[in-house]
Amino acid sequence: MTIETGRGLMVEIWGVDQQKLKLTVWAYQFGGGSHSEYDRNWLRIVIDVDSKQGKWKSNDPSLLTWEFLSLIDWFKAIRNRQNTEAKLEFVEPNLAFSILEEKPGRLLIRVHFDLESRPPNPSDQIDYYFDFELNSKGLNTLISRLEREIINFPVRNRL
What we know:
Elements: E1 3-4, E2 11-14, E3 20-28, H1 37-41, E4 42-51, E5 54-64, H2 65-79, E6 87-88, E7 95-103, E8 106-113, E9 128-134, H3 136-150
Antiparallel strand pairs: 1-2, 2-3, 3-4, 4-5, 6-7, 7-8, 8-9
Helix pairs in contact: 2-3
């Protein structure tokens, strides 16, 4: 597993069998003028997937700012060997993360893609996902890169 950053803010993850996932927080979905706390905090997440199930990209409001922060906290809890849920799901079911296998020094994670985060013309009979392995160094790097990714998108309070 290799984690790299590309131009600007992007997390690039190399997965099992040379699969690749690029994840970018592109923008807030709406400008700051909305009075709704939810509308003010939806993030457009760009994913670029190259997997055994195909190649596709999407750019959709998939996570709220605090959900992105909870993803970072989830990985930190795993790193710190704290009790955590085996699967992390969000309000919009576009993305989910789960622990497939946990062994000393090795972690196998699955990113689940649903709804707008699936490829164009998806089959409802197929579960779309991306698997990647992490060692402790890779886990620390991933946490650091995710923290860097969200830094320009703080939680917006209500007006």
